[in-house]
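Give me the 3D structure for cysteine-S-conjugate beta-lyase.
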Amino acid sequence: MASQLIRIWSKPSENIVVHTPAYDGFYKIIQENKRGLLPCPLEKQGNNWVCDMEKLEVLLSQPETKILLLCNPHNPTGKVWSHSELKTMSVLCERYNVNVISDEIHMDITLGGTKHIPWSKVATTHWALMTSASKSFNIPALTGAYGFINDNHSREAYSHQLTQCDGLSSPAILAVSAYIAAYREGHIWLDELRNYLSNNLNYVAQVLNAAFPQLNWQPPQATYLAWIDLRDLNIDDDKLQQILIHEEKVAIMPGKIYGEAGKGFLRFNAGCPRSKVELGIQKLISALGKLC
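Predicted structure for cysteine-S-conjugate beta-lyase (292 residues):
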């Protein structure tokens, strides 16, 4: 969906602003559509992630900037954007006539009472909100996603690209049925899922910090992803990956996959049975111990 909108709302060589570190798929669709990527690095302040709005404004104000590609909640940091942050971004996008594509696939997986605010609540310029039930209800194999596009012209252009350029005319009926059932009947599942994920992430924090207190890692506000800052350990990212893969026989995503701002980090997936989380963290601690 994002790739289609990028082609509708921008031209080759025009720019797209992305908060970094960023989901690796963002880099791919921007590059393959021959657009320029302007990174806006999030700043780690304690256990929080903050956007420097003045730096963001500089990027949005550039004449060639046409789109803000927002991740809400943010992957990989797990940040949930506050209403004031979203409102500030909306004001800036309106000021510089920048359209917004908001990827909200993790919208249902907020933790610790944190509230997700959709971009549609603050939007003023042309915008599109994209999401899916695949994360919330574990149904990616059924395929499918859905979105909201606020203006008729962009919706018609999007539909034209799908049907006339890509030859797609209708979604899979099984996926449609599954989505309807999930959102109508799946609230008990979703509540239990959030509790399970929260317990998994709390376990990661407890065990990892016991082994390496200097990390002081804390669970995110959203997602099932542990974005672990290893920079205080002063270890070599590539050597760590070699040990994890070849000695510990476990794969944990290196932070550099998510851009320059991800160097020194790992993205540990806690969206799995507790037994796998326990094994994965034990393997990570063992690997870190060999380098520290």
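The longest helix spans residues 187-211. Let me know if you want a second pass.
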